[in-house]
Amino acid sequence: MKKIAVIHYDEIALKGGNRRLFEQVLVNNLATKIQEHGLPLRVHNQWGRIVVEQKTKEDVKWDEECDKVLLDICAKTPGVAVFGIGLCVDSTEESIMEGVADVAQYILKGRRVFNTFSIMATRTDKAFPSSSQEIAKRAGDVASDIFGDTKKVQLTHPELTIKVEILQTESYIYERLNGLSGLPVGSSGRAVALLSGGFDSPVATHMCAVRGVRPILMHFHSYPHTSRAAIEKVEAIAGVLRDVCGSITLVFVPLLPSQKEIAMTAPERLRVVLYRRLMVRAAEVWAQKHNARAIITGESVGQVASQTLENISAVAQATSLPILRPLSGMNKQEIINRAREIGTHDISVLPHDDTCTVFMPKHPETRAKLEDVLEAEKNYDSENLITEMLKKSEIIKL
Ligand code: ATP
Ligand code: MG
Q1: Which of 82, 222, 361, 392 could lock 256 by a disulfide, CB 3.0 to 4.6 Å apart?
Q2: Upper half-sphere CA count for residue 235 (Cβ side, 13 Å)
Q3: Ligand 1: which residue has its CA nearest to atom 22?
């Protein structure tokens, strides 16, 4: 009997010929995080699932502190559909029932609050003497003895599920937890994510990461016109995304000189659209240099007066890269709830000064026409402004 963690992926399995590649990306992403946290564990692919076990030649033991870190890693790694810490035992009914008892003890020790539970048994070895249902029934009785009378077996929507997976020579028993699912970060390539301090763009970036996109974060600031705190806020948000994506690059780009130039030369109403067009162009230049194929924004149709289809279109036409807007059809409350779930809410909620409101016109254009925008851009040299801002940008690796 040995301690293990089991990780299942779902969508990756659908990828046909690419399956092995996707599995490898997920294993690597998990292994890197485990190593960064100094956990004495190793990760490998085993019969269509990922198994984590204690490294053999390691003094550090796999303790409860390790459990916490590992569970957090699993919960935040895209591509992980189901995971849990438990035991690997011999595939005999006796060993399995002993394992169930031990896992039930372990769950009680963790003082998890729950009233209902179920056992989910699967067997790949159809030669195993008992059926999955019979195993589940017996295991349920064993767990009930440990949990006591207050915890009831409930087959639909139980608060806790113990999974019993019977393979040919060994079986896994663990508490089944749900992960983010999706695809492992990096398996879909890279994109530049335009990250502000608000609620939306961190959620948009997270959603794309769960679709396998590795984001390169780019923030435009108006320091010293806006505060240092606004920059620190973005750094804190990037830290949360880093826990999900693994090592991440954050680029701070100074927008203020361009904003001054635009304020002096272009019609007031168009300022915000013109700032945005510079942002997506700078993002495109960065994307080309760093092998990224798209831009991510937190735009959501009609959320604010400036995000009309006309304005979104006027901004989009500044780049030939596709712009991913995963929040397009979400309303604000859904986005805020999502921000809570992913851990960016409490940072985004802090007050900050917004780069786009610097030299903000009293009546910003809500239906920008491309011809007016292009006319306004004739008054300044966009290419030069972009070259300059990128030259002065600050790159942080988190
Ligand atoms: P957010 O909550 O992400 O700030 P928002 O609802 O405030 O979004 P806008 O301010 O209109 O919306 O910005 C739309 C999108 O443009 C943002 O979601 C983000 O992707 C991008 N963006 C805005 N400001 C910046 C900035 N200073 N740096 C980088 N990207 C930005
Ligand atoms: Mg904003």
Answers
A1: 222
A2: 11
A3: 196
Q: pTM of the entire structure?
A: 0.94
The counts of H helices and E strands in the chain are: 13, 15
CA-CA distance, 256 to 114, in Å (whole number)?
54
- Contacts of residue 61, defined as CB under 8 A and 6 or more positions apart, other chains included, come to 40, 54
Whole-angstrom CA distances from 231 to 35, 127, 309 are 29, 61, 29
The residue nearest atom 18 of ligand 1, judged by CA position, is: 298
Distance 195 CA to ligand 2 centre (A): 9
pLDDT digits (tens, 9 = 90+) for 65-74: 999 999 999 9
Query: Which residues form the pocket of ligand 1, taking CB atoms under 6 Å from any ligand atom?
Result: 194-196, 198-201, 219-220, 279, 297-299, 303-304, 306-307, 355-356
HSE-CB for 120 with a 13 A CA cutoff: 15
Residue nearest to atom 23 of ligand 1 (CA): 196
Closest CA to 212 of 187, 240, 176, 175: 187
**DSSP letter for each residue of 213-251:** -EEEEEEEE-TTTS-HHHHHHHHHHHHHHHHHHSS-EEE
Residues with CB under 5 A from ligand 2 (ion): 196, 198
φ/ψ of residue 378, rounded to 5: -70, -20
| Chain segment 325-370, per-residue pLDDT in tens | 999 999 999 999 999 999 999 999 998 777 767 777 888 888 999 9
